[in-house]
Amino acid sequence: MTQPPSLVALFVAPLNRAAIEYMVTGGLAAITYGHPRMTNDVDLVVRLAASDTDRFASLWDASAFYCPPVEVIAAELARGDHGHFNVIHADSGMRADVYLSGTDEFRAWALKHRVTRLVEGEPMHVAPIEYVIVLKLWYAAEGGSDRHLRDVKRMLEVSGDTVDQRQLEHWIARTGVTEQLRHAQAFRDPA
């Protein structure tokens, strides 16, 4: 029996080989800073210039992946701070949710402060923990999912000593998720 592909092999390694600037966020980043859990997708913030769209699309073999056409990537890039699309591995259904960096100040800060971890023998650029926490809190506020609060609680338990409190407080205040942080800190898994 062959080992199923991993998110790192499918989506991170090609970006590394192409020297495209990115950072991993979302569930995979929360796992990196917290406790293991299942995830079938990776959230990526990617910095692309208009001249990079062909090169980015060519990373994903059309016989094995769905990647939107170059014109769609270019249109998403033109949206500024809200560009987003998916790359999907056909056989496994694993997916990369690609968010384009745009001019968002928080994303720019996070890309500048990303950290590199060796995962499965591959360097993986991960958003700083402060960014991951704030985004998880924001998603909890927007969607009400306990999963995001659980992720924050676990990241604080495992990696809390690495958090830059000043930066975390700054970005929490800017995004208005102070109440969600209190909920995450008090979160208890259902019995």
What does this structure look like?
The chain is α+β, with helices and mostly antiparallel strands and 191 residues long. The protein folds into 2 domains: 1-127, Beta Polymerase, domain 2, CATH 3.30.460; 129-191, no CATH class. The chain has 9 helices and 7 strands, in the order αβαβαβαββαββαααα. It has helices at 7-18, 26-33, 53-57, 70-78, 105-112, 129-143, 146-159, 165-175, 178-185; strands at 22-25, 41-46, 65-66, 84-89, 95-100, 115-119, 122-126. The strands form 2 sheets. A 5-stranded mixed beta sheet has the order 1-2-5-4-3, with helices on both faces. Strands 6-7 form a two-stranded antiparallel sheet. The termini are far apart.
Characterize the quaternary organization of these chains. single chain
Structural class: alpha+beta
Count of individual helical segments:
9
Mean of all residue-level pLDDT scores: 93
Top-tier CATH class of the largest domain = Alpha Beta
Question: Strands of the biggest beta sheet: in what spatial order?
Answer: 1-2-5-4-3
Q: Distance N terminus to C terminus? A: 36 Å
Whole-number total of structural domains: 2
Q: Architecture of the largest domain, according to CATH?
A: 2-Layer Sandwich
Strand content: 15-25%
- The radius of gyration is 17 Å
Number of strands: 7
